Every structure is written in C-alpha cells, then in structure tokens.
Amino acid sequence: MTDWDVRKLRILRTLHERGTVRAAAEALSMTPSAVSQQLANLARQLGVELLEAHGRRVRLTGAAHLVLRHADEVFARLEQADAELTAYRRGEIGRVRIGAFSTAVPALVVPAVRQLRTAHPDLEVQVREAEAAQAYELLSSGDVDLALSLAAHAPTARDARFSRVPLLADPLDVALPAGHPLAAAPGLRLAELSGEPWIFGGSGPWSQITLTACEAAGFVPEQAHSAAGWTAILALVEAGMGVALVPRMAAAERPAGVAMRILTADQPRRHVIAAVRRGAETAPATARLLTALRAAAAARGKP
Q1: How far, in Å, CA of 281 to CA of 275, rounded?
Q2: C-alpha count within 13 angstroms, C-beta hemisphere, residue 75
Q3: Nearest to 247 by CA among 224, 269, 229
Q4: pLDDT tens digits for 2-25?
Q5: Which helix (H) or strand (E) holds 163?
Q6: CA triplet 247, 253, 255: central angle to 5 degrees?
Q7: pLDDT digits 0-9 by tens, 28-61
Q8: Structure pTM?
Q9: Were 296 and a residue from 12, 111, 117, 228 both cysteine, which residue would form a disulfide, CB within 3.0 to 4.6 Å?
Q10: Three-state SS sequence of 232-248
C-alpha cells in the first residue's frame, strides 16, 4: 500500500494553487529548494512523475492532478476530524456511560439526558441499570464512566479510587392504604406506625434503609411481607396488607388506593450521590453529564 505523506500533499496542493515553486515556498515559509526536494520525495514514494518542465517553470502532470483530487478529499476529512476533536475536547461530542439504580433512571438520568440532547445533541449517554454494589464494580472496571448510588451503600469518602458528588437528599414518605385510620391524621410521626405490618425487602439496600429509619424512630418494624420492587410494594399497600417507606423519587406512579404521607417531624432521607473514577470528573463530556444531573436533582430538591 502506498505511503501517503499529508505534509507533502499539502505542498503539492499549494504549488497548484500558487502556480510557481517560489510562490508556494513563500506561502509555506520554506525555501524553493526545500519545496522541490519534498515534491521529488513524494514522487518517489508514489512511483509517478508529479512535475514536468514547462519553459523556465514547472507544471503538474496528469498523475499530480489525479493525486490532488484525492488529496482534496483527504484534507476535507482531516478538517472534519479536527472540528470533531475540538467538539470532543469541549464535551460537545462523544459518549458517556452511566450506571444508575432503578428509581434514579426516570427521576434523574432521563431529565439530564433530555437536557443534554437539547444543548449537545451529538453527546451520547448510554444508560445501564445497576444496583449500588454493581454500579461501583462497573465503575472500577471501566465499564461505566459515572455511577449513581446511595451514600449509605457506596465506598467511603476515603476510597482513593473514586470522587463522590452529592446530588440529592431524597425524602422517604410513608405509603398507607387509602382507607387507613392514619391516612389523614395530622402531624404523622413514624413511631405511630410501630405496630403496623411492614412491607420491605428481605435484604439489600432498601431493607437496611427501612430498618435504620424505623430504629431511629424508636422501634423495629415487623416485616409482614417481603418485596423489593416498588410496583409490588405499592400493590401490597393498596391491598391493605401493610405500610411501607417509599422514596419520593419512586412514588410518582403510585396507585390510586395508596395514600402517601410526609413525615414532617422526623422525616428520614436517603442521600443520592454520583461517583466517577478519581480525576475523571474534569473530562468534558463527563463534566457536562454531572452538570445536567445536578440540574435534575435541583429540580427535585436541594441536597
């Protein structure tokens, strides 16, 4: 395969534009002898004659014009590549991969992606649903560029592998059957529900969050039913089978038969954070996604 030298092709194109070796040399800040030498080297590399004598001057051969037709396409593609690299450096083009837990996808990730699509349509965001522990494994292995998780189930702030960015303090509200005696009670406190049957997962982050919140209110919840998905939990509550703590981010699509009560006096919260590999937070595309996530979180409530 022919070894194409872009610098020498540029010299040939300049000669074609300027008409003489001397004029091309002046345009390129070279000596005429250097221009002639470079073009002679290019001719040897390509295996064709590029210049022919024409009186006291030279002119381009048919082979040279053929080469220039292709060179124009090469230079156009290089200009395009240069423009795209500039956009990439600015974070306006490229791809960012994000791993996020289930409720964060519709509440934070989707609004952030919509914002980026409007402002930077050539910046692609690839979403992967993942629970807290898996999200950090994916981040550590390089399979995602950013992870959304809960602070209580993330590596500590002293973990040198990651940089953490607080996003949102998501309130936990109580889901009660619509006909429950406390569904309309004023000033509801979590402790008033200590004798109720509770619905939460048998293990995992949400189970621990429920237990911790109830223990902080002075009781250990009696687990009547075990469910991990919010659709199942809210369906059980609607059926009158128990009560549950539900993050506000997950309560948007609650059934009509479920009453959501805000615990104004002792409201528990779960803290949502974003994490990147340490040092990667300054990468332009990742920085733009973080900014969009902060805006989405601010729209739901400040951390």
Answers
A1: 9
A2: 15
A3: 269
A4: 667 888 888 888 888 888 888 888
A5: strand 162-177
A6: 105
A7: 899 988 988 988 888 888 888 988 887 778 888 8
A8: 0.67
A9: 111
A10: HHHHHHHCCCCEEEEEH
